[in-house]
Amino acid sequence: MPAGARPPLALLTLLVAVGLVMAAQAFTQSDTPDIQLQLGKLLYADGRFSEALTAYEHAVGSPDPRVRVPARIGLVQSALRVGSFQKARTAAEVLRDEQPSNAFALAVYGDAMWSAGLFDEAERGYQEALALQPEEARGHNGASRVFSARGRYDQALEHSLQAVRLDPREADFHHTLGNVYERLGRYDHGATALASFINLLPKGLSDSRAAWAASELKFLTSFGNKMPYEFASNPDQVYTLPFRLENEKIIIQGRVNGSRPTDFIVDTGAELSTISRQVGERESVTPITYTVSAGVGEVGLRGLQLGRIDKLEFGALKVKHVPCIIKSPALQDLPVPEGESFSPLAMGLSLTVDYARRVMTLAKRLPEGGPADVTMELWMNRLATVRGTVGDGHPRSFVVDTGGQVISISTDTARALPPGDLRKIALKVYGASGWDREAYLMPGVDLAFSDIRFPKMSVVVLNLRAPSVLLGYELGGIVGHRFLSRYHVTFDLNRAELRLKES
User: Fold this and answer.
1) For 317-350, what is each residue's pLDDT tens digit?
2) Which fold has domain 374-502?
3) 210 — alpha (psi -120 to 50), left (phi > 0) or beta?
4) Which one of 67, 247, 402, 447 is most buried, counting C-beta atoms within 10 A?
5) Beta-carbon neighbour count of residue 187 at 10 Å?
């Protein structure tokens, strides 16, 4: 190369990457904590989160708070990146005790509690961070997630824009902003935010988040000037639909692009409505891109198609440009074929299910229904969740799933219980991702949801690791038909409440 000439950018990138690999190999556990801290920062910036986590774990034992505190922060953030939610939570609780006046540390604590499914604790962490430092960007990003999960999208947007303004180089803040715009139906702005998110991700190694975001970006831009979930019928009307119960699932009749009536399961435990490949092909629902889905079953994460239904009808309710998942490729060897499901919450519709009368009411704003016997906070963090406690008071988030049947807890929740005399009875369970051959029945578990208590109950234990990682927070379990069907159930998105009234 001639003197004074600059090496090609690709060569510089290669040299930096090689240098980082050599540095990581050169450092050992015996290196001083401050060296491990610097290594952790380098690895984290390069997107090598698992290796960064190891380095931070070596550094966090330093007696020097100038090393220990940033190492613990890095440990929490790296653990969240690799889906080690419990490790992040434990470290964050120590961090909060050590640094009660550190606004950034409190915001990181909020992130860890959010990913543990402890949304109330996360909200307090973000509030404390902003009270100490009103310009704390991570606190604003957290506040945006809180307001969005409570259905207050205008306030969520305000905080998200503030976070991006304060720290425009933080990729996650753009991702939050994209999610808020998507919930507002402003897909064009959401696409712009997602493009910024992709561009800001570490370039050192391939990042699965970039592939997922690129697929979502393609989907959002495909709408052009079409408004998602545009009502062809009166958007302010209260809709009443009859349903039947079949295999402990709510079934209603719907039409896809003017088709003949088709059975749909009403599923509050899904992010989007779904259709089978056969219905999609028959009714000309064109696949747009692929997405990643996860549910109960040994398949774990599975690739499925994203499409758009031109018109979806349920009685007098008619909605255009409905985002949907197409179950293609379909799972094999299931007891029943994969069918269609309807997610009213994804449309922004509140609903009341009257199991006794077999009637469902849907509206953007429900009429007053009188006092409830039990009212719980409803968090719409991608899925509808409520807080429950397991055993002697372990708090967990439970998905409220009209498409599910039993009351279940996750394997991680089960591990948190004292061994005692708890037994494991093998079960064969299948879900959205196939057979869960590790599922089992655990008798004698204490459960509570607000004032509702289930002492010494038999619960199904499911592997919810894959959906937890995909959602970005730990699922404690699922409550389905056998919990809900005893009540007149109201999902009120405007008040962010789940209301239960004895039938």
Assistant:
1) 999 999 999 987 666 666 567 789 999 999 999 9
2) Cathepsin D, subunit A; domain 1 (2.40.70)
3) alpha
4) 402
5) 24
